[in-house]
Amino acid sequence: MTTTAEHHALKTTPEVGGLGHSRKRVEDARFLEGRGNYVDDIVLPGMLYMAIHRSPVAHARIVSIDTSAAEAVEGVIAVVTGALLANYNLAWMPTMSGDTQAVLATDKVRFQGQEIAAVIATDRYIAQDAADKIVVDYEELEPIVNPQRSLEADAPLIRDDKEGQTTNQCYTWESGDKAATDAAFARADKVVSLDTHYPRSHPSPLETCGIVADVNSATGQATLYMTSQAPHAHRTVFALVAGLPEQNIRIVSPDIGGGFGNKVPVYPGYVVATAASLVIGKPVKWIETRTENLISTGFGRDYYMHGELAVTNDGKILGLRVDMISDQGAFFSDAQPTKFRAGLFHIVTGSYDYPVAHVTTRGAYTNKAPGGVAYRCSFRVTEASYLIERLVQNAAYELGIDPAEFRMKNFIKKDQFPYLSPTGFVYDSGDYEAALKLAMEMVGYDEIQKEKEQARAEGRLVGIGVASFTEVVGAGHGDDYDILGLRMFDSAELRIHPTGKAILKLGVRSQGQGHETTFAQIVAEELGIPSSDIKVVEGDTDNTPYGLGTYASRSTPVAGAATAMISRTLREKAKKIAAHLLEASEDDLEWEVGKFYVKGDPASSVTIQDVAFAAYTNVPEGLEPGLEGVNYYDPPNMTYPFGSYIVVVDLDPGTGQWKVRKMVAVDDCGVRINPMVVEGQIHGGLTEGFAMSSMQYITFDDIGNCIGSNFGDYLIPTAWETPRFELGETVTPSPHHPIGAKGVGESATVGSPAAYVNAVIDALAHLGVRNIDMPVSADRVWSAMEEAKA
Amino acid sequence: MNVTVTVNGAERSADVEPRMLLVDFIRQTLALTGTHQGCDTTHCGVCTVLLDGVPIKSCTMFAVQVDGRALTTVEGLKQNGQLSAIQQAFHQEHGLQCGFCTPAMMLVGTALLEENPNPTEEEVRWAISGNLCRCTGYMNIVKSIQAAGAMKSEEVSA
From the candidates A43, A122, A206, which should be mutated to test the interface with B, based on the most B CB atoms within 10 A? Predict the structure, then answer.
């Protein structure tokens, strides 16, 4: 176990700013002066505005749509309906999971907030006024709001548009070995089970989704400025959906005001605005309101999970059994690899060593907004991590063992890596004991355990909760991981200019993660070019190599690897040029950050900048001029970041209110490129974990009205409620990543919810309380206490 | 209706619809896009500007209500080519990530420090509790505002 500083003796000076330097962020300059460039900041000549009319009901047949009053409003240019789009074969579009989704509803509405018609007008206010004047006549149908009801035989069919679809089941999927798992359960001394709902949540970046679609009718060029976490994949989707030639589509993803998975899917509004611009011949801007964002765009989670852990009396786990129903809403639009219908949920075996597991999953259509995006997580690893960490704590209670000790006893050991999990993952590296030990020291674990009893005697309740999570991030390898068939690789193009400065172009797209700062550090480390001499460019498909985008913590594991690899390729070429300049054999050259020198004669040297100039002015015979190149990196495996989080809560037995006294987070994401940026990512993730565990969720009433359609109902923690965090680190490099990094953007969102909830459950464990579903609000805590006493 | 308002020290005048929201006036009419819009309902605070030095949410005022008054937006923080203490502190302390809440956070911080040059952590957290951030967990925003306070105090005593 080491820290970044110990592990990684800095190879570069702060001026060069390679790996391990907390380099201040380059992108700050524009944001600090209000000079960022988000989609809604883009104004084009003659630009029109779009507003969408949405369904007020969750399930109904559309009898008629009357747009005449809207069309009569002065300033309205056009009203678009699904019938009109059908003429262009655009009334439906594919989702990222290979389902279809209505762009504008023609037959039925299937969730409250569904897009029915769009108004294009000269002004945003006029567009909204006119959209409100559209009159739709509905024949209401039974709304299906819970997935259990949805899967009953007599439930009305939601997706009657799909040929061959006779039930509301949208997928089934399983993983693991059923027979071997059943046998392990038959041998168990005890079986510990847990039923829990991971509620529907919404990523809610503060910037909503939007587009400025600019289709030039003279040239056929479509320039789409949009809130996109995956601009290249979106370009391909647009080519497929709209039938536009792909070379004529340019997606520009400008500054993005947070994404968290919400900006991975393609939404109907993007398609309608593009079609409108194509037909009208002018740029069209569409920016969601917050309510539109909350009620219609990609939500996260909504898994109903039943888990069982088979254990022995002496505290060993023998196996795991999980059955899960996911509520997918009206269209199956998870953005996740084709092979895995429930994402990477089968990583649910967690950080523990046992031979067998069996996971069964079913997806249900309901009359709710579609989504199931990986909300700050790698394809459902959040739900998986939550379930196993809750189960492990409950198992420890049943066995009368301390939950931390139970974890230590069952952890995959340091020398077992690479470790083949019972559901087929190959964990690359880890040292789970070290992370938990450090977290326990930092929080003062033993003292808190002692305090608990004393507190109860004084009428106070104290709880301590642990979560020792393992993530799986950085998709592909491309054989196993794809989006709509596109292999999940990523790319980096490095051009070193004659003056020794460089530009790095990436297939990924930051939404706040600081790529412009950190990716330059990778190049600086590999080539010795100061990071301040390297410009990083992303988000423009005409100007960057193809990549699958930024989500599922894949930028550092995949595009970061591509950056290191192309740097090394160029260093090889640089060596040939250096040999030429030094009139030495390549074999006689040594590399030291930023320069080549002749072995045994350090004075005979050339800098990387000298070599860069020579690459354009003085190359050896037979070598191509220039010092540029591109790398497409298809990772051999995923990376497996891990950590241990411990939360201490004080709980008021009179009201059920709980407050975090202390939150300690030890993360191991391998080598840290920029510790400052890594810590910032962890702070943010811990806050979103706190949000989900305590207040943030989307629910619906019996007829499918969305409760949580604005920030008055959908609660996001402010600085006042948010706990303070204490961070610790261990460093276990990824053995297959060129710089040993693993990715960290989502670890804290994945790992922390179980720690918060486990702490609350721990405060009530003596009463026999074993579960409270998130969000663990005061009223739910109070009810659980009352029920336990009864 | 005609609105005349002092924006970052300069007088600006425009003819606007009575129902035009102040945030749209700032972003569209004045083309000052550093002020953002995030929720339309006064909750998120990314539209915060200073009206006569006091933080207000510009999505919940009409442009006509600010006639004859003075606005400060993020574009007005830099003075004489020099970043203000709060801008420098947000950079030093990594107080921003996606940048969307940042202008508002800096303006609220600026107003707080005018009143209370050395706020405690609690006081900062209370002051910014009308402004949401999804990226930072507030830790470094709080630090940034406190650091800006310390910087300004040093300047005064120097």
Answer: A206
**Which residues of A are designated catalytic?**
229, 376-377, 746
The whole-number pLDDT of residue A171 equals 96
Could you give the dihedral angle defined by the CA atoms of residues A374, A666, A740 and A611, in that order, rounded to the nearest 10 degrees?
A: 100
Cβ pair B139:A718 closer than 8 A: no
Give contacts of B 36-65 with A, CB under 8 A: 36-41, 43-44, 46
Predicted confidence (pLDDT) per residue in B9-50, tens digit: 999 999 999 999 999 999 999 999 999 999 999 999 999 999
Q: Does domain B2-76 have CATH number 3.90.1150.10?
A: no
- What's the pLDDT at A720? 98
Torsion of CA B125, B49, A202, A519, to 10 degrees: -80
Q: Which two tokens stand for residue B80?
A: 């004489």
pLDDT in tens, B99-116: 999 999 999 999 999 999
**Token representation of residue A315:** 């505290």
Parts of chain A with a pLDDT under 50:
1-2
| Percentage of residues in chain A having pLDDT higher than 90 | 96
Please give the average per-residue pLDDT across B63-88, as a whole number: 98
CA dihedral A651, A652, A655, A656 (to 10 degrees): 10
Torsion (CA) A524, A529, A530, A533 in degrees, nearest 10: -110
* B151 Cβ under 8 Å from any chain A Cβ: no
Q: What topology does CATH give the domain B85-157?
A: DNA polymerase; domain 1 (1.10.150)
User: What's residue A1's pLDDT?
Assistant: 45
Q: Where in chain B is the domain with CATH 1.10.150.120?
A: 85-157
Residues A445, A436: Cα–Cα separation, whole Å:
10
Asked if A710 has any chain B CB less than 8 Å from its own CB, the reply is yes
For residue range A699-750, what is the model confidence (pLDDT) as tens digits? 999 999 999 999 999 999 999 999 999 999 999 999 999 999 999 999 999 9
DSSP states of A18-30 as a string? -TT--PPPSTHHH
ipTM: 0.98
Q: Do B91 and A511 touch (CB under 8 A)?
A: no
Domains and CATH numbers, chain A: 4-36+490-633 (3.30.365.10), 39-141+208-256+263-296 (3.90.1170.50), 300-475+637-789 (3.30.365.10)
Is some CB atom of chain B closer than 8 A to the CB atom of A716? yes
Q: Using a CB–CB cutoff of 8 Å, tell me whether B7 touches chain A.
A: no
Which of A29, A684, A686 is nearest residue B97 as measured by Cβ atoms?
A: A684
Q: pLDDT tens digits, residue range A516-536?
A: 999 999 999 999 999 999 999
Interface of A with B in 94-133 (CB under 8 A): 124-125
Contacts of B102 in chain A (CB under 8 A): 31-32
Kindly report, as residue ranges, where domains of CATH 3.10.20.30 are found in chain B.
Answer: 2-76
Cα separation of A222 and A214, whole Å? 6
